[in-house]
Amino acid sequence: MGNLPIKSNSRHISILLTTSFALVFLAIPISATESQVKTYDTRAMEAFMYGMDLEQAGEYERAINAYLRAISYDPNAVDIHLSLANLYLRIGNIQNAKQELQKVIDIDPHQVEALEHLGELAFNEGRHSESLRYFERVLDIEYDNDYAVLQTAQIHHALGDTIREAEYLIRLWELDTDRIAAIQRAENIYLNASDYERIIKLYDKLIRRMPTETDLVGRQIRLFLGMNRFFEAEALMDSLIQVAPYSKDLQAMKTDLVKVMHGELAAIDYLTAVVDEYPGSFELKMKLAQLLLDAGESSNARKYLEEILEERPDLPNAISMLVWTYLDTDDIVTGREILENYLPAFPDDFFLHRLMATILYDIALSEDDTTHYQEALEAQYTALSLKQDDQQILHMVANLLERLGMREQVLETYLHLIETYPEDDLALNNYAYMMTEGEVGEDTLRLAANYVERALAVNPYSAPYLDTAGWIYFKLGHIQLARDFIDRSLEINPDNPEVLMHMGDILEYLGKSNEAYIYYMRANKLR
Questions:
Q1: 157-168 mean pLDDT
Q2: CA distance 257 to 254
Q3: How many Å apart are CA 357 and CA 317, to the nearest integer?
Q4: Which of 260, 295, 477, 503 would you label with 207, given CA atoms 20 to 30 Å apart?
C-alpha cells in the first residue's frame, strides 16, 4: 500500500505570532500529565523565535544552529525539539530527526505528533511491528485520531493481517462515514476470506446507520440467502420496512425475497396488497404488472398498466409492457394499434421503435407478401436510425431483404454484422452459405469455408452450420470431408430435407445412386 506519508507539523507554532503572545502560549504545559505551569528560559525563547524566522527564510543550517542554541538554554523544551525534528525531516536528515523525536518522547510520552513521525519513519524503513507500536500509542492517547487509524490499517496490511486491517478500516469509516472506499475495502477483505459472520456484523452496523440504503440491504439479503438463512433475511426485510414503510425500493426488494422464498404467486399476492395500500406508487404497479406477465396473467397485468398510463402516458416501459400483454395472447393486431397510438410521442425511443419493427416483421412473415415486407423494412430502418448497429434488427433486415431477392444488400448486411460482432455465428454461417450460391470460384469457396469454420468455433454442434461446411467442402472437391460434416449434421437433426438432399448429392457424386435415392426420397417426404 506504499509508504506512509510524513504528516505535516500541524502543531507547529505559527511564525506569525508575536513574541509576547508566543511567550504566553509556550507557558502552557505541553504534557497532559503536567499539573504545574512550566516557564521557559527567555534566552531559549529568543533563540527559538530567531530560528523560526530563519527557517521561514529558507536558511536551514542557521535555523538548526539557532534551535540547538535554544535547546542548550532549555533542554526540556518539547516544542523546540519538535521544531528541530521537523526541520531535519524537511532537509532529509532522517537520523538526526529520529534522535530529536525520541528526545521529545522521553520528555513527554504523550506527544502525538512525535509518535506519528516515529511511526512513519519506522514504516518507511520496513520496521512494521515497531511502526505499529507507535501508532497504537497514538490511539491510546487519541482514540478518534483518524490519521493514526488509517496508518494502523496500512501497517496491518503490510504485515499480512488483512482481518485486523479491515477492523481498523471499519473504525475509520465510523469516524468519517464519507470514507466509502475504506468500508468497501473491509467488505472485500471479509468476502475474500469467506468470513461471513464478520460480513453480517459489518452489514448490520452499516444498515443501522443507513436503513434505506437499498444496495447495502440487497447485499445483506443475498448473503443470507446464499447461506440458506432465509428467515433471517425475511426478518431483516420486515424490520427495515417498519422503519420506512413508504420506501418503494424496500417494498420491491421484499417482493423479490417473497418470490425466492415462497414462489411467484406469493410474491404477486404480497405486492398486490402493497399496491392496494399505496395506490399512488406507479413503480410498484409496474413491478406487479411484470410479475403478472411472467406468470401468464396478461389480463390482470393489463389492468395495472392502463391505470399507470392514464396518469403517466410518458412512460415508455409501461407502453411496451401493455403491448406485450396483447402479444402474449397472440392479439398482434391490437398490440400494433396501441403502439401506433403512442409511438408519435416517442420519436427517439429506440426500444419502442424496435418493438414496432418486430411486430411488423412477424406480420410480414405470416402474410408473406412484398407489401408487408416493405412496411416491416421501413420500421426496421427507422429503428436503425436510432441505433445503427443493433444486432437483432440487422438480422431481421437481412432476412427480409433475402425474401425480397435483394442478394447484394443481404451480403452487405451480414458483412456489417460480422464486422460489428465478429462472433455472431448466425451471420458468419449465413454469409458463408450465400457466398457459395451459384457458380463461384475456388477463392470465394475458400473464403466462405473460413467464415463457416469461425461459426463452428462459436457453436460446434449446430446442424445447419455443419451442413454449410459440408456443402462448401463438397464444392471444393473435398468429398470425404464434406460427407463427414453432413453426417454430423444429420446425427443432430436427421429430418432436415435440405441436408438430406446434400447427402444425396454427395452419394450420387460418389457413384452410390441407390443410397442417394434413399436420401432424396426421405427429403421429398419431409418437404
A1: 92
A2: 5
A3: 16
A4: 260
